[in-house]
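Case study 2.
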Amino acid sequence: MMLKLRRSLLCALSLSLPLALLGCAHTAEEAAEGSTTQPARPAWMPAPLTSMAYSSRIGIMTVLDNEITHVNAGTAGIGNSTTTMKANFDLPGYVSESLRKGLLANTPYQPVPVRPSARLVRDKLIWQKSWNPGKQRFDNDWQKEFDAILKQNQLKMLIIVSSPVEDDGIVGTNQDIVGSGYYSRSFFGKKQTAVFSTIHFYRIAGQPGKLLQPITAPEERLYADLPNFPFPAPEPLPPGPISNAVNTAVKNMIDQKVGAFIPFMK
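Prediction:
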């Protein structure tokens, strides 16, 4: 909730800026100039995973629909619309492979694919709400399920890739976004189009399994511009250059999110 409020406040100050600037893309403070010591670990970055041995098994569970979503934002909720379309590439597979390659290239751990349970697939948009920060545990049924997954697959950590519903971060639209796709908006004659993704990587580790914080890195982006994209945005995407542009932009967004996440694993 705090992340959404922060994003909304930033966007309120940036309504005239391109959508690429409306995602929460902050950078960690640099070390003091001229310092000869190792730069301090950024405050947002979790402590190193020193308890995980070399070649520890890390499960990758992708709970995503193979869909591209078009979100159109109006004003005060008027003109809002959301349309989902079947992706013409394997979006869940692309996310899993991007994360697997990132882990292999940048960590000493062994990524292992894990099939999601029917319950996780059914409740992919709400399971995160079962985490109780005060008690540091999930609701009983979810806790038992995650503990069993970790134990049965001999995992030190389970990474669940999921797309929660988020506010679009723009004041006055009253619009939510979820998944990955393209976003369009017209405001006082100014037309904006962008690609977006709400994909996050949730780390569950230990026995009993705990949801590790933070979830989102400061470098992670919510939007990226789609230059020279037709307006109004087409539905469905016609085959050819327009569809290819969206697919490429979505893949680039996924790779950017993976790159922002990997430091959490070091």
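The radius of gyration is 19 Å.
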